[in-house]
Design brief:
The chain has about 210 residues and is of the alpha+beta class. The chain contains four helices and ten strands.
Length: about 210
């Protein structure tokens, strides 16, 4: 699915680009809800996933208008919202969540070291571990200012329960900067990853 990458070049103002991306988020959500229908889930599960997508649209657009005061921030929030819709369209076959200050998905944190608590509980007779976003890329991070990150190598080892921290160094950022991070967890069956799911978190620095 395409994103309005060239829209920022044509935008006459930040407000114009906010409107463009907000409309795009609404339009693309219809495609994701169509995919939910194709999965032929139970009526209750279909309704739940579509409601989650609608909530993502609403909250993403709130963040676009409230916290995204330049083109880069708008792109971060828009792409984060698209990731969230894709993740919730696919659903989670095992328990998996990421929290920042006990907040999930849309979060706030002070400048400095931002700790993301990664928790996953695999299904019976399986294990969980953090996996690479791409072959040579551990996580997907988009930030309006430069950031670094670190994590425990133990997180990459399969375990009965995954409960660890992924730490972003945001000490060089400024207040109202935005960071989006997508972390992948793999559910291991024997020696191979039987399921892979992503969890995207948007962070407003305060």
């Amino acid at each position: 699915m395409s994103t309005p990458d060239t829209g920022s070049e044509r935008a006459s103002s930040v407000e114009d680009y906010q409107n463009t991306c907000s409309e795009f988020i609404v339009d693309i959500s219809k495609d994701y809800k169509d995919w939910v229908d194709r999965y032929k889930l139970s009526e209750e599960e279909t309704k739940s996933r579509k409601a989650t997508i609608d909530n993502i649209v609403q909250t993403t657009n709130e963040w676009i208008y409230r916290y995204s005061d330049n083109i880069k921030k708008i792109d971060i929030v828009m792409n984060d919202g698209i990731n969230k819709m894709a993740e919730n369209t696919a659903g989670y076959p095992f328990n998996f969540q990421v929290s920042v200050n006990n907040m999930r998905r849309y979060t706030m944190h002070s400048l400095g070291q931002v700790k993301l608590n990664v928790r996953a509980t695999p299904r019976e007779a399986r294990l969980a571990r953090i996996g690479n976003y791409h072959k040579d890329q551990l996580v997907l991070i988009s930030s309006s200012s430069p950031v670094n990150f670190n994590f425990s190598n133990e997180s990459l080892k399969a375990a009965d329960i995954l409960d660890d921290y992924f730490v972003i160094d945001a000490s060089q950022c400024q207040r109202r900067d935005l960071i989006s991070v997508t972390i992948i967890v793999e559910e291991m069956d024997q020696d191979y990853a039987s399921e892979r799911r992503g969890y995207s978190t948007l962070i407003l620095l305060t």
